[in-house]
Design goal:
The complex is a heterodimer of chains A (317) and B (296).
Chain A (H helix, E strand, L loop, with lengths): L6 H61 L2 H6 L15 H32 L2 H15 L3 H19 L9 H24 L3 H9 L4 H12 L1 H17 L2 H6 L17 H10 L7 H33 L2
Chain B lengths: L1 H37 L5 H5 L12 H32 L4 H15 L2 H15 L6 H25 L3 H9 L4 H30 L2 H5 L33 H9 L4 H35 L3
Helix pairs in contact in B: 1-11, 3-6, 3-8, 3-10, 4-6, 5-6, 6-8, 7-8, 8-11, 10-11
The chains are: A mainly alpha (317), B mainly alpha (296).
């Protein structure tokens, strides 16, 4: 380095070095700014997706409701958009959705709650370590496989009990939906019960209560909102379940509350129309968006309710 | 009195155990049935043949190729966006209404039924953007579908990195991005990888949205090869090709009457279950290894 140097030159070098550093800092700051902007854009994709879902559903539904009045949509008892004499009453599809979901919940809630209590309060840590990942695995199995079970395993088995059960019915798929949402119900309600502080249990034991009395009268009441949240999220999953009912519940809209009969659900109808070749913009094409809008509103409502309740159980203690 | 209470205690224990056994046992039984029905059809011919009117000659080759290509698009689009969004939310975002909005939409999207994503894709990708019923459309749809899973799991992995690591990097003059790229991401890589595998395993089994965007259930050709013998040796024609995927193929066979086709469906189901179990097993293994190695 130049040790012999005029003062002026040294200052000049120092200055240019400083300018270089300032330039580097500016470049660095600019790069940081661009990166942060890019990351923000990526994060905004989920907002854009939500908005677009609503926009697409509303836009296509508006075209549908120009032709079909809201009154007909909610009161007509026939759903035959593809017939010569079209009727557009959502009730039969809603009934199918409600019946299959209720059957599913009748399976999932009792079995799920008892399993969750056992897992949280009675099972050894080792057993929990094995059961929890197993449940996770079962939750990951593709739903089309569960559709196969409903049509080709569970329904034939039920026909042994009730020989006049039709090959397509709502009972079989309902039961399979129940089995399918079990992992979700068990794991969420177990989380809620494990979040109950140990001191509450110890207090109860100190009063001479047994394990079961503590679980039933202390832990479950304390975890109620979390357990109910698990049910609600289970309902949301059951309502939106598609492949099981599309495969095994039949394709005919049928206004009935009897689970032994075949009937189409909202989701099954969407699949049925999508499999066919309906022209873009036709009323049949738009009808699946109207049906989808009803489904989206229902699941949104259940999801919001579920998450509000889950938040509550976290904040209590 | 005490006897009665002890009895009900034992009764409940038995009840709880049987409920768990019922839950897990039923599923094991169902998979057993799938195995019995399908294992006879699951051979090399099945994996390398095209679908056919004759059940015994039918195969799943186009569906396997289709699934692979769709997953390629999904991974290519969904993973970078998801990971970037998670980095933003964990490392950059301040508590504003915008952050709040992003978090609410991520939670919400995680609960939207997959068929609604199908309707979104039908309206947006197939018609508005004119992408048609192509591999590209299906891949983009599934990318949006797995976004919440990727974001949530990546955030968890990033959150597990102690704040001291970041403070040390900042103290040495690193910028935020340098801290993220050189420290936070490498240390949380295995956690992120776990999330990515789980997300892809979910995507590979999705049926409803792919039906909605118009996948075919009977397809007797393969998409154009991505590698060509003429310069530039790479072709992206396959992105616009019609396609089918494994769960759709299984759906197609389940819906056909006749025991032979049911056997094909079971074989396809075995393949699907096998793949998801393998991917989940891999994810659990990665998570386990990470837990053993890292000690802060």
């Amino acid at each position: 380095m130049p040790t012999v140097m005029t003062e002026g030159k040294a200052i000049l070098i120092d200055k240019s070095g400083g300018m270089e550093a300032a330039g580097r800092r500016r470049a660095r700051r600019r790069r940081e700014f661009v990166i942060e902007g890019g990351l923000l854009l990526a994060a905004l994709v989920s907002v854009a997706t939500t908005v677009t879902i609503l926009a697409v559903l509303l836009f296509e539904s508006l075209g549908f409701f120009e032709i079909v009045s809201l009154l007909d949509f909610f009161t007509d008892t026939l759903w035959t958009p593809l017939f010569d004499d079209p009727h557009y009453g959502i009730l039969p599809l809603l009934a199918g959705t409600v019946v299959t979901s209720v059957v599913g919940l009748l399976v999932a809630i009792p079995v799920g709650t008892v399993s969750a209590i056992y897992l949280s309060e009675f099972a050894s840590p080792r057993m929990r370590e094995i059961i929890k990942p197993t449940l996770e695995l079962l939750g990951a199995v593709p739903t089309v496989v569960y559709g196969y079970f409903a049509l080709l395993v569970v329904t034939p088995a039920l026909q042994l009990l009730w020989p006049d059960l039709p090959g397509f019915n709502m009972l079989g798929p309902g039961i399979v939906i129940g089995i399918m949402i079990l992992p979700l119900v068990i794991s969420l309600s177990e989380d809620a019960m494990r979040a109950v502080p140990m001191v509450l249990r110890e207090g109860s034991y100190a009063m001479g209560a047994t394990h079961l009395e503590t679980a039933w009268r202390v832990v479950v009441p304390a975890a109620t909102s979390g357990i109910v949240a698990a049910y609600v999220l289970g309902v949301s999953r059951a309502v939106g379940e598609t492949m099981v009912v599309a495969i095994a519940a039949g394709q005919n809209p049928n206004l009935t509350w009897n689970p032994m009969e075949p009937a189409a659900t909202i989701t099954a109808y969407i699949v049925q129309v999508a499999l066919g070749d309906l022209p873009h913009g036709s009323i049949g094409y738009r009808s699946i968006f109207a049906a989808g809008l009803v489904l989206a509103v229902m699941t949104f409502a259940f999801n919001i309710l579920g998450h509000v309740m889950r938040k509550r159980f976290r904040e209590v203690y | 009195m005490i006897k009665r209470r002890k009895f009900s205690e034992a009764l409940f224990k038995a009840l709880g155990l049987s409920a768990l056994v019922l839950a897990v046992g039923t599923l094991v039984l169902l998979f057993g049935a799938l195995l019995i029905d399908g294992v006879g059809r699951l051979d090399w011919q099945f994996l390398t043949s095209f679908p056919s009117r004759h059940a015994s000659q039918a195969g799943i080759l186009p569906a396997v190729v289709g699934s692979t290509l769709v997953m390629l698009v999904t991974a290519f689009v969904g993973i970078p966006i998801g990971v970037a969004a998670a980095i933003y939310l964990e490392e950059y975002a301040r508590r504003t209404w915008l952050t709040e909005l992003i978090e609410v939409t991520v939670t919400n999207l995680a609960g939207v039924p997959s068929i609604i994503f199908g309707l979104l894709a039908l309206g947006l990708f197939v018609y508005m953007l004119g992408l048609g019923s192509s591999i590209l459309t299906a891949g983009l749809t599934l990318a949006l579908l797995i976004l919440p899973v990727v974001i949530v799991t990546t955030r968890e992995a990033i959150r597990a990195i102690p704040v001291q690591i970041r403070e040390a990097a900042f103290a040495l003059g690193a910028t935020r991005w340098q801290t993220v790229a050189d420290h936070v991401l490498p240390y949380s890589a295995s956690g992120i990888l776990t999330g990515i595998i789980l997300a892809l395993s979910r995507a590979i089994g999705e049926t409803a949205p792919i039906v909605t965007v118009g996948a075919l259930t009977f397809i007797a050709f393969l998409p154009p090869s991505p590698i060509t013998d003429q310069p530039p040796y790479l072709s992206f024609e396959w992105l616009m090709s019609p396609f089918t995927v494994m769960p759709i193929q299984m759906f197609g066979w389940v819906s056909r009457p006749g025991e032979d086709f049911a056997a094909n469906a079971a074989a396809a189901g075995l393949l699907l279950v096998g793949m998801t179990l393998a991917m989940n097993g891999l994810a659990i293994y990665v998570r386990y290894r990470m837990r053993k190695r890292v000690s802060w």
